[in-house]
Design brief:
Elements (H helix, E strand, L loop, with lengths): L5 H15 L4 E6 L6 H16 L3 E4 L1 H5 L14 H16 L4 E4 L6 H14 L2 E8 L2 H10 L6 H10 L13 E4 L5 H12 L19 H19 L8 H18 L3 H15 L1
Parallel strand pairs: 1-3, 1-4, 2-3, 4-5
């Protein structure tokens, strides 16, 4: 068929317009092992695809570990950073080809959840957190019942380290699933109910914030980061880190301006960088 045909041209134009208006969604799970995340992730993905016509993909770090044969029988801490980075990369790429991407991981640190929030901001897609709540005793019991697929000590460690949700607006859960009170099917129904009307309503504006790199915005973040540096170096706990803190400010300033972060988020970056250099 002739590409110059006006009818074909209009069809393509309408298709492009429709595709550009599709709202993307990133849903991340958080919770200790044996809280039911993986079972519900698969059921939720099928429900969204079959009943709501949403192209949905589930991505978790366990899938990446399964690509490394030695990790089938051995836990190697040194490999975890690369697995984490690859998971983040795949999630970000998957958003381009799907309506919904579900991250099936523990995400027990706030910084882990924040990494996905930053992806959502960059991709201008909706961001939702689903919290899976279970007592330590029940998680250990379920893990033992299914053959102790995860070391019991790891479950205890994650439980102790778990960062509570809600200290920032972006870190509040859309829904909390309690395994002891919900069958997987009821858990999916609860999540679907919470998602109704939200999947097609953009959280982030699609327009680029051209004023972000204007002199006034750059000056604002320059001043803000200087304030944070001042607060930190005058804190007795960080007296010995003065040079590091100043160096970190120089490293992250451009990123801070580009991603339009608030003061709390910028402080988190400082703490994260200090931990890396400790």
């Amino acid at each position: 068929m002739d590409e110059r045909n006006p009818f074909i041209h209009n069809i393509k134009k309408i298709k492009r317009k429709t595709e550009s208006k599709t709202t993307k969604n990133l849903i991340i799970f958080t919770g200790i092992p044996s809280s039911g995340k993986s079972t519900i992730a698969k059921l939720l993905a099928k429900e969204l695809e079959l009943k709501y016509n949403k192209k949905t993909m589930v991505i978790g770090s366990d899938q990446i570990r399964n690509m490394v044969p030695i990790l089938e029988e051995n836990f190697i801490p040194q490999r975890e950073e690369s697995i984490r980075k690859l998971t983040l990369f795949l999630v970000e790429k998957a958003i381009e080809f799907n309506d919904v991407v579900i991250n099936d991981d523990m995400n027990y640190y706030k910084s882990m959840r924040h990494d996905f929030y930053q992806i959502a901001k960059r991709k201008k897609c909706n961001f939702f957190i689903i919290h899976f709540k279970i007592s330590l005793e029940m998680a250990l019991k379920w893990n033992k019942k299914r053959g102790t697929t995860i070391p019991q000590e790891l479950i205890k460690e994650v439980f102790d380290k778990f960062d509570p949700l809600g200290s920032y607006e972006w870190d509040k859960s859309l829904s909390t699933i309690e395994k002891t009170r919900k069958t997987p099917e009821k858990g999916v129904a609860q999540i679907i109910e919470e998602l109704k009307g939200r999947l097609d309503e953009p959280q982030f504006k699609s327009e680029e914030h051209s004023e972000r790199n204007s002199p006034s915005i750059a000056e604002y973040y320059d001043k803000l980061t200087r304030e944070i540096v001042s607060e930190l170096i005058h804190n007795p706990e960080f007296e010995s880190n003065r040079d590091q803190i100043i160096a970190i400010r120089k490293q992250i300033l451009e990123k801070v301006i580009d991603e339009n972060l608030d003061k709390g988020e910028i402080k988190e970056i400082f703490f994260k960088e200090l931990e890396k250099q400790a």
